[in-house]
Amino acid sequence: MSERIVKPVVNPEGDGTLINVTPESAGWEYVGFQVAKLAKGETLTRESGDQELCVVLLSGFANVSTREHTWDNIGKRMSVFEKIPPYSVYVSTSDQVQITARTELEIAICVAPGKGTYPARLIAPEDVGVEARGYGNLERQIHNILPEQKEADSLLVVEVFTPDGHWSSYPPHKHDRDALPDESLLEETYYFRVQPEQGFAIQRIYTDDRSVDETLAVKNGEVVLVPDGYHPVGAPPGYEVYYLNVMAGPTRTWKFHNDPDHEWLMKK
Fold first, then answer.
1. pTM (2 decimals)?
2. Alpha helices for the chain (secondary structure H)
3. What is the dihedral of CA 162, 166, 169, 172, to 10 degrees?
């Protein structure tokens, strides 16, 4: 199995954490990512420390509180494949977040270095930008949960729905050079869900010199680490593919570079 794939634990213990990516485990500097599943009535608590967090309610309803704010009974979807924007909570540094499940609950916790610039806040579904991107079998649905136009120190968070037989993160692009204004350096995680669950997604990761050139079959619930390279995603016929992206780097801006071999697709 590729070292770029992080599998969920089979029998989660303790606080229900299924996935735990840290900068140390990923071998990079900025992005952390967790997924947890809670039964009704269970509670998960996280300290932010010197990090900022974005807690995304993937499915289910919850009470969420920080040291100064409480949001009761938030949630809007019971499956990501309802394709409606989620509730999320932004948490600043030196804070604590507590999540109590009101139903069966799946959450993602997106993590990156913070400076304490912005206070905790609720990101409601109506605050999430929804757009269709691409054309033909390159079309996909985008939910901009925490884009660069919204307040945060480091985090960029977006979810993407790729219909069966379609491609996304396409044409192939990369953002692995700190070379602004042309390209920004952003580490990235992809958290995949597939419907029906026995399916898979295809993700290719490659660099210009092909020192990295991998094609991954990614299963439901797995995470792919993308520290560098182009990274397109394909959804096989019969299977819808969802992924949640978390990005962070030295500068909070998304400036990508398309693979020149496939740049012509942007001109159609």
1. 0.96
2. 23-26
3. 170
Determine the Cα–Cα distance for residues 140 and 169; give it in Å rounded to an integer. 9
For the stretch 26-29, contacts whose Cβ atoms lie closer than 8 Å and that sit 24 or more positions apart, written own/partner, are 26/187, 26/189, 26/225, 26/227, 27/227, 28/187, 28/225, 28/227, 29/187
Question: Are 42 and 100 contacting, i.e. CB atoms less than 8 angstroms apart?
Answer: yes
Which pair of structure tokens corresponds to residue 66?
A: 């920080």
Parallel, antiparallel or unpaired: strands 176-179 and 173-174: unpaired
Detail the DSSP E strand segments found in 180-264. 183-185, 187-195, 200-206, 213-219, 223-226, 233-234, 240-248, 257-258
Structure tokens at 158: 């977006």
How do 17-21 and 32-38 pair as beta strands?
antiparallel
Q: For residue 262, what are the contacts with CB-CB under 8 A and spacing of at least 6?
A: 171, 172
Ramachandran region, residue 250 (left: φ > 0; alpha: ψ -120 to 50; beta: rest) = alpha
Query: Residue 209, SS3?
Result: coil
Q: What is the pLDDT of residues 72-97, one digit of tens each?
A: 999 999 999 999 999 999 999 999 99
- Angstrom distance (rounded) from CA 138 to CA 24: 34
**Chain segment 14-57, per-residue pLDDT in tens:** 789 999 999 999 999 999 999 999 999 999 999 999 999 999 99
